[in-house]
Every structure is written in structure tokens, then in C-alpha cells.
Specification:
single chain, 443 residues, alpha/beta, nine-stranded mixed sheet, two-stranded parallel ribbon, globular
């Protein structure tokens, strides 16, 4: 049977071949002719996280004996939420990659008013903030400058304002104790799905919020786009009872486990926020696949020292501490083959997804390389996934948080239309790498 890495390479080659076949017959892919989103410029960027909060005792809540996967085990209300909103910190049961039950924390928010049929439920997967226990998005969602605020303001609060219930996993290890999960798709995906299980039934612990179990979706940004992709891939086997209607992926983070690409990244002679990404990947894969790769196999002695900072700092606060040396001094090169083996198991992108998915990408994004998103789109198209792709020529990584839900095509309306039974849009035939034509809408 083909290895996971072979499957990834074959999928990428299939995407390229499919693109070549379509080149002579399909119209050019359209970009939405729109300026960069102005609201994003006022709110701040993806990594404006200069405050690392202190954990409370809530996050040390142990799992009760006999706890079941997906069980809600603890909750506490978030104080000071806006009028018309309910919000709770939660702890629920998930599993690590060795099948052991672990506590995972998260945030649950919904409209405060009654709903006769129940609210649609979206499982939101957040972007890169770190892997330390203080770095989750449930701790301080209303406090500017903290990791949680970067998810609350541009994502969770607007989804709730649109009439949706939103559960957002902190991910394993980011709040409740557990293995680091950065870009370890099967581990992140379990957390995303088990969060839905934890809140889909009304409970007095979380305000008896009614949920329409027939209207579920997954919505992720950056790291969270990859986590959402992973959740959708594993859902048919891991959580087949969840009736997920669609997935929204905003500038999804994806690092192909291909030696040439990884060695090129590792050879970066500069010091940038890429340092943080590499350290997060190294720590997470060493913890999630200990039988395959060790941390000191990936990192140099100087990298091992920098990795000690990952437990205590988040976001920009972490970037500033690990980006003062060239990346080449932190990671062993060439990249260890065992890391590539582990990443071949942890990265999504080789399976057809059984529900419609939609990608949003800004072409001025320097955090998520647009060409990687294009490759993901082409791969899903080649695999037969119903895929919708929206590109904005002037938007960057932070502005896409706003553009995707404030301008048509609208990510929130995309989910609602599918719940309403409307045909899911699919523009696979138009997605050709390198096209630059613009239009007011998307074909």
C-alpha cells in the first residue's frame, strides 16, 4: 500500500496534470476586484498579541473516571460579554494520537435569545498563536492584546452576531494540559470535532443553548484552516454521527512534507516569524509522534534552547523572542527524514472530502504563501471534492479575516445557503495556477 508521503506527492502531481488538461478549455480563474479590507487595518494584524495571560485553576480540571470521548466535563461563564451573547469556557474529552483520553479546553458562544429550532453550530479553528498552555483562545477573549482576542473580534463574535452558535477548541495543550498539536492534523481535527460533540446537546453547564444538529459546519483560519481540513478528512471515521454540511478554509496553513520544500525553508538565512513556525512544528511533531522523531533530532542545540520559550509565550510575544537569530542556526539541515515521515502522517490533503468546502485567499499574504493554497485547491479538485475558491488580489493574511465575511462571496452566507439546501458552488473548472483576470464576482 502506498505510503502517506507517496499519496501526497501523487495528489499534488494529479492536481498539476488536471490543471494542464483544463488549461486549454476553461476560462481564466477570476479574482474579486476589491481593495484591501479597511476594517482590518483598524483592528490590527494576526499577531498583535503582546500579552500572555496567566492560567486559572479552571484549566487544571481533571477528567472524571469513565469520561467519554466528546463529553463536556466542566464549564464556566465568561464575564463581561456583550449584550445578547452567552459565552462559556469549556473543558471536554478528546484523544491523543495514541488513543488516550485527554482534556481539551475551548470557548463556546451563542446568541442569548431563544431559538425554536436550535442554532446552527460552527466549530471554529483558530490561527497560529503558539502551543503553550496560556496561548488558547478561551482564556481572555475580551481583553485586547491577548491570544484569545485575535479570535474573538474578527471571527467568533461576528459569527455569533450572524445567528450562529460557535464552539472553538483551544487545541490540545493550549489551556488544559496535553501534547502540542501545531499542524498535527489528526490531533487538531479530533479537538475540533470533539468540541462539537461537547456542546451539541443543551446542558445547564452551558446555558441550555439549543443546537440544530442538522446544521453543522467547520470554519478555520490559517493554522485553523489546516485543522478544519483535517477535521473534515477524519470526520467520516472519527465522528460519523456529526452532520457537517460544509467547511470554510481561510488562508489555510499547509506545509507539504516534501524534502525539497522543507530543506528550502530550513535554509533561510534570515530571522523572521518563520522561526516560530518551525519551532512549533518541531515540538508538536516530536510530542505527537515520539516513536518516529525526537526534538533534538530536528533542532540544533541553540534551537533546543529557543524551544524552551514555547511553553510560556504566545503570538508576537513569542515571535520577538525567537526571531533574533537566523533560522539556519535553529534547525538541523538537511531536515531529518524522520520529521518528513511524521509530517506525512500529520498533514491533510490526500483524501476526498465528502462535504463541500470553500477556500478564501489574499494574494498579498506573506504568512500563507498563496501558491500553497492554490495547490491545495487543485488537489481537492483533482480528488473530486466540491470546491469553491475565492481570491482577493490586494488582501493579506490579517485582512482576509474580515474580507471573507463582509464582501460577496460571503463565507457565512456560503454555510447558510448549504444548510438551506441550495446547491454548493463549485468553480474547480476555473482554477488555473497563474491566472490574473479580475471580476466583480467569482465564476
Amino acid at each position: 500500500m502506498a505510503s502517506r508521503r507517496t499519496q501526497i506527492v501523487i495528489a499534488l502531481l494529479a492536481a498539476i496534470v488536471s490543471g494542464g488538461v483544463l488549461f486549454g478549455t476553461a476560462p481564466p480563474s477570476s479574482l474579486v476586484d476589491a481593495p484591501i479590507n479597511a476594517e482590518s487595518q483598524k483592528q490590527g494584524g494576526e499577531f498583535d498579541t503582546l500579552v500572555t495571560p496567566e492560567l486559572t485553576r479552571f484549566y487544571d480540571t481533571p477528567l472524571p473516571p469513565g469520561a467519554k470521548i466528546g463529553q463536556l466535563v466542566a464549564a464556566e461563564p465568561v464575564d463581561g460579554v456583550p449584550a445578547g451573547v452567552k459565552a462559556y469556557r469549556i473543558i471536554y474529552v478528546s484523544t491523543d494520537l495514541q488513543g488516550r483520553k485527554i482534556p481539551v479546553s475551548g470557548l463556546y458562544a451563542a446568541p442569548a435569545g431563544p431559538s425554536a429550532s436550535g442554532y446552527p453550530l460552527v466549530s471554529f479553528a483558530h490561527g497560529t498563536l503558539g502551543v503553550g498552555r496560556p496561548c488558547g483562545i478561551s482564556q481572555t477573549p475580551l481583553q485586547p492584546g491577548t491570544p484569545a482576542y485575535t479570535a474573538w473580534m474578527p471571527h467568533i463574535k461576528p459569527l455569533v452576531d450572524a445567528g450562529l452558535a460557535v464552539v472553538a477548541s483551544d487545541y490540545s495543550g493550549m489551556g488544559a494540559p496535553g501534547p502540542s498539536s501545531y499542524l498535527v492534523g489528526p490531533l487538531e481535527g479530533r479537538g475540533v470535532l470533539d468540541a462539537m460533540r461537547a456542546v451539541e446537546n443543551p446542558s445547564p453547564m452551558i446555558g441550555d443553548i439549543p443546537v440544530d444538529k442538522n446544521k453543522l459546519a467547520v470554519y478555520g483560519k490559517s493554522q485553523g484552516g489546516e485543522a478544519a481540513n483535517s477535521a473534515l478528512e477524519i470526520a467520516p471515521e472519527y465522528a460519523p454521527e456529526l452532520k457537517i454540511g460544509s467547511g470554510v478554509l481561510l488562508a489555510p496553513g499547509y506545509t507539504p512534507p516534501i524534502r525539497g520544500i522543507l530543506d528550502a525553508v530550513a535554509s533561510n538565512p534570515t530571522s523572521t516569524k518563520q522561526n516560530m513556525f518551525v519551532l512549533l512544528i518541531a515540538k508538536s511533531y516530536a510530542e505527537s509522534y515520539p516513536d518516529i522523531v525526537k526534538l533534538d533530532e530536528i533542532l540544533s542545540p541553540e534551537g533546543m534552547e529557543k524551544a524552551k520559550l514555547l511553553d510560556g509565550y504566545c503570538g508576537q510575544n513569542l515571535i520577538d523572542r525567537v526571531s533574533d537569530v537566523p533560522l539556519t542556526k535553529l534547525i538541523n539541515t538537511p531536515v531529518p527524514g524522520n520529521l518528513i515521515r511524521a509530517m506525512s502522517k500529520g498533514m491533510p490533503g490526500t483524501k476526498r472530502i465528502g462535504v463541500p468546502i470553500a477556500f478564501w485567499q489574499g494574494l498579498k499574504d506573506t504568512t500563507i504563501i498563496p501558491q500553497f493554497t492554490h495547490a491545495q485547491v487543485m488537489t481537492q479538485c483533482a480528488l473530486g471534492t466540491t470546491t469553491f475558491y475565492v481570491r482577493y488580489p490586494e488582501d493579506d493574511h490579517g485582512s482576509m479575516n474580515y474580507q471573507a465575511r463582509t464582501r460577496d462571496p460571503n463565507a457565512i452566507e456560503y454555510m447558510k445557503n448549504i444548510w438551506a439546501g441550495k446547491p454548493a458552488p463549485d468553480n474547480c473548472a476555473n482554477q488555473l495556477l497563474g491566472t490574473v483576470g479580475t471580476a466583480t464576482g467569482v465564476n
